[in-house]
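Dear Dr. L.,

I hope this message finds you well. Following up on our conversation about the binding site, I have prepared a predicted three-dimensional model of the protein together with pterin-6-yl-methyl-monophosphate. For your records, I am including the exact sequence and ligand specification that went into the calculation, followed by the structure tokens. Please feel free to forward this to your student if that is useful.
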Amino acid sequence: MTAWKVPGLPDERRCLVMGVVNVTPDSFSDGGRWFDPEAAVRHGLELVEQGADIVDVGGESTRPGAARVSLDEELRRVEPVIRALSQEGVPVSVDTMRAEVADAAVRAGAAMVNDVSGGLADPAMPQVVASAGVPYVVMHWRGHSQDMDGRAVYSDVVTEVAEELRKRVDSVLAEGVDERQILIDPGLGFAKRPEHNWALLGGIHRLGELGYPIIIGASRKRFLGRLLAEPDGTPRPFSGADDATLAVTALAAHAGAWCVRVHHVRPNADAVRVAAAWRRGEGAR
Ligand code: PMM
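The resulting structure of the complex is given below.
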């Protein structure tokens, strides 16, 4: 199903599944659960057992309003986990906005850099990624978590996000990153209101026109809880949004997403297989 060959990552004929390991005390849906490095490694291995093709390890929460952690603390959190998982043969991506963390992560074995700021937070990032030669996620981002909600202003969100992503991609290419390294992500929930997230999901084919594999990170995000709100408007807590995540996964995979980033791997891995079979069915007579 995926026509994309991304160097160093599994080449499946279906949408890939990226399992999330947040080594943080405060992430939105799993903060604190995998803060201990051994627990984080165990969890990463469990996710692979459940069908994850890639494990995304992050040491800095990006939930709305979150404050930044120091460089040393971020390194302390992610490096041992990345080293241990890589030694077990797991394809690991590092979820970081810092060039120094990306550099240390690649030295520890990371096969991919997932930068939610698309190179905006740390100007040294593109050069580190260019010399590492690993796949690089350029996510749409308008600023740090403390004040991102105020930046969720668009008149045509799909056109603007596509245009801002194209500019970011051009900029990192100009710094020496190779086209084959680039993956793009609309950054659901990052300076986006619920209606923006839905427009971007519905407009995924327009993002595809940029010509790069697309990652979708909808798992347990607030806009799903808002969609499933009680009649009095109380949002559904994230723990009740896993089935909605699955629905997004199936639809995004069917629409041609290259990868979904999810917390609860097994059912999402099943959903991408359903989507791949559905697509094959469309080609059959
Ligand atoms: N979302 C979060 C963190 N990292 N990376 C990518 N590429 N795309 C995303 O949508 C994304 C990300 C925040 O989610 P979490 O704190 O629930 O893991």
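In brief: Residues 16-283 form a domain with the TIM Barrel fold (CATH 3.20.20.20).

With kind regards,
A. P.
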